[in-house]
Design brief:
By secondary structure, the protein is an alpha/beta fold. It has 13 helices and twelve strands.
Length: 341
């Protein structure tokens, strides 16, 4: 019999297209709170439905997530609508398509019982970033806020919460935080005038989740935003009034090595105010963190924030694919992809 535990503060991954017995034991650890899926976990819609069902059967309380923005960052492809990168929407001037694309993305994931995608990107592209680029909705904060807001509305219509990333903005640095620790040398006034605007707008519209950047804003604080009580507690919680869930970016990224070993990274991120930390592509490190945080207590406030990330209602996949709206939107997206190929 499964002993129901509240979800813990650690999101981990699994290696392949099925869940091994060792991985099932890892998912049952008290500190486990979620699973993030990757392209390697996907073969077909039928297979991913079975994989998700196995995770649910192992530990029903876990949140299941994926990076599924579109463009370069879309984990499931064959059998799913190929979404364009966010930057392509601006040229169309079609806000209705943006909203419906958010709905389609979320509906296709909810139809396989994934709770949420780490989307949308709220970074403002400055023309220099190695990792953001066409993942951003635009080069102007007003454009990003308007288009990302529409995309988020579509996600909610499909019963999916949204996660804005990468707070307070990753678009103004050259380096990729997967490979290095970027340092943004701009003052707070520059961030206020540009990068923070989309976050302010979407927070006012009820954004459910935030992912901070592994970036140091050296004129403001010495710690990367995801490990910074200043950015998370003072700016995000107090000044901006954010009441949703905060997820660390992957602690396996080079930008997270600032904080030391994996356990140190996890503790520092949680102490700074993150509700859940991600440990990806490093099963040994995941086990180490799960063991170290086995007795970490999850507050009622943290549980409430994380619970808002759960998918709100089921969607039948066959009915979705047969629906006139899905057929219309998928055709419009296919035409957009062809026009910009």
């Amino acid at each position: 019999m499964h002993l129901k535990l509240p979800p813990g503060p650690v999101m981990i991954d699994v290696e392949g297209t099925t869940v091994t017995l060792d991985e099932q034991e890892r998912l049952r650890q008290p500190a486990a709170g979620g699973v993030i899926l990757f392209r390697r976990n996907y073969e077909s819609p039928e297979q991913i439905i079975e994989l998700v069902a196995t995770i649910r059967a192992t530990r029903p309380e876990l949140l299941i997530a994926v990076d599924h923005e579109g463009g370069r960052v879309q984990r499931f492809r064959e059998g799913f609508t190929r979404l364009p990168p966010a930057a392509r929407y601006e040229a169309t001037g079609d806000i209705d398509l943006v909203e419906k694309s958010g709905w389609l993305m979320a509906a296709e994931l909810r139809a396989i019982d994934v709770d949420f995608s780490f989307a949308p990107v709220l970074d403002v592209e400055c023309g220099i970033s190695q990792v953001i680029g066409d993942r951003a909705f635009g080069t102007k904060p007003e454009t990003v806020a308007r288009l990302a807001g529409a995309f988020t509305q579509g996600m909610r219509r499909a019963g999916m919460a949204a996660v804005g990333k990468h707070f307070p903005g990753h678009g103004g640095v050259v380096e990729d935080s997967h490979l290095a620790l970027p340092v943004d040398q701009r003052p707070m006034s520059a961030l206020e005038q540009r990068d923070l605007k989309p976050f302010r707008t979407l927070l006012a519209e009820g954004l459910e989740g935030i992912m901070p950047a592994h970036v140091i804003y050296e004129q403001i604080d010495a710690s990367p935003a995801g490990f910074s009580p200043y950015w998370i507690q003072q700016v995000l919680r107090q000044q901006l009034g954010f009441t949703g869930a905060i997820f660390s970016d992957d602690l396996s990224m080079a930008g997270a090595a600032y904080a030391g070993g994996y356990v140190d990274r996890a503790r520092l991120a949680l102490d700074a105010g993150c509700d859940m930390v991600l440990v990806c592509n490093a099963p040994g490190a995941a086990t180490e963190v799960l063991d170290a945080l086995a007795k970490e207590e999850t507050s009622a406030h943290r549980l409430s924030r994380l619970e808002r990330m759960r998918g709100r209602f089921p969607i039948d996949r066959n009915a979705l694919l047969a629906s006139p709206e899905w057929q219309e939107v998928s055709s419009r997206i296919a035409r957009l992809n062809e026009e910009t190929a």
